[in-house]
Amino acid sequence: xxxxxxxxxxxxxxxxxxxxxxxxxxxxxxxxxxxxxxxxxxxxxxxxxxxxxxxxxxxxxxxxxxxxxxxxxxxxxxxxxxxxxxxxxxxxxxxxxxxxxxxxxxxxxxxxxxxxxxxxxxxxxxxxxxxxxxxxxxxxxxxxxxxxxxxxxxxxxxxxxxxxxxxxxxxxxxxxxxxxxxxxxxxxxxxxxxxxxxxxxxxxxxxxxxxxxxxxxxxxxxxxxxxxxxxxxxxxxxxxxxxxxxxxxxxxxxxxxxxxxxxxxxxxxxxxxxxxxxxxxxxxxxxxxxxxxxxxxxxxxxxxxxxxxxxxxxxxxxxxxxxxxxxxxxxxxxxxxxxxxxxxxxxxxxxxxxxxxxxxxxxxxxxxxxxxxxxxxxxxxxxxxxxxxxxxxxxxxxxxxxxxxxxxxxxxxxxxxxxxxxxxxxxxxxxxxxxxxxxxxxxxxxxxxxxxxxxxxxxxxxxx
Length: 464
Hints:
Elements: H1 16-24, E1 30-36, E2 42-48, H2 49-58, E3 64-66, E4 93-98, E5 104-105, E6 112-120, H3 131-146, E7 149-162, H4 165-170, H5 192-207, E8 214-217, E9 223-227, H6 233-253, E10 256-259, E11 272-280, E12 283-284, H7 297-309, H8 314-317, E13 339-341, E14 348-351, E15 358-361, H9 370-387, H10 412-421, H11 424-429, H12 431-449, H13 454-460
Parallel strand pairs: 1-6, 13-14
Antiparallel strand pairs: 1-2, 3-4, 4-6, 5-6, 7-9, 7-10, 7-11, 8-9, 11-12, 11-15, 14-15
Helix pairs in contact: 3-9, 5-6, 7-9, 10-12
């Protein structure tokens, strides 16, 4: 099934007038107003398009949603322990400030458009713990303090299986069959259903004004990688959200089901690599003027900041227990905080040529929230620039064997300990924000540790 366009609406954000024209011609029937929650999902409400536009024109009170959307875990349990809201605070509402410059068609949903909103607290200020607000704060700090801006792109992996979500759930997500049975890394011969999925995903994202740069199969059965072009960091994050939204809907039409788990099977790791450049005006600043293939002083400060701060920010880029099952030797997911030039065995890879020299952060898995990953990375970079930090020598060979560099934690329990023990999360994010995400990580651990797993049954049922 190919993309459904709304009379060839323009390949860019839609204006209010363009939305109204589509409504008048009965080509647009619904508008989804969405915010981004802690795990990095779109949450919100679907409105009738005429009502939504009339409401905007009348400038009525902003819509509200329950604040627990920004103070819960992946299972969306109403829990206690968050300062924002909990049982003791009555689970009140937060407002949603509409951001019309994000309006996009979602061609995989006939007659629908999506608009992002910024959560606003009872004090009228943007909600500090909201991922979009956290990213905006770090971008403003980079701009105001250092005169720098960022450009980014995301390179994300996921795994496709035969069947539907309902069928997978019925078998407890065990024994699923990947869409390919073998390694197809860089292959151009794919099963028919995978080729059809690629074609429809590409067409639909193009219709949403976010064209794909490239799609390829990866090194594990059923594994796929999608990359997007460089650009504005806020738009890059929105693009990733809509990509995941589209991938799930379109896969379902092809009787396929995707997962963005970091480690969906033993020995399989889905990464989410952040490619990042820094600019002063129109001029890139990471490369050295005398030798553009090497880092400038600013570039070295940025790398040093990442290496010093990221070990204390683990729950922001590896948020759940499963995240840490990627970090294994010779897995192409780093297990040490090392850096190097064009070195895929390190956590921070300096890659590109000339003005294209940039940083690739290889730590996050596909389960991470892009807004939190980018906010953490920019906070770490600002920390490095502020302190004029110097990185250790680059790792020239196998980063997995570089014992001079610290290890990446192998569990969320350890990462949360490091997060709480360091002053950096509070200094870089603000104490209340840091505490909020510490509690979110604690809830994920609590949920996981309380459950009996298939591994425990397999090892212990008849052997104990």
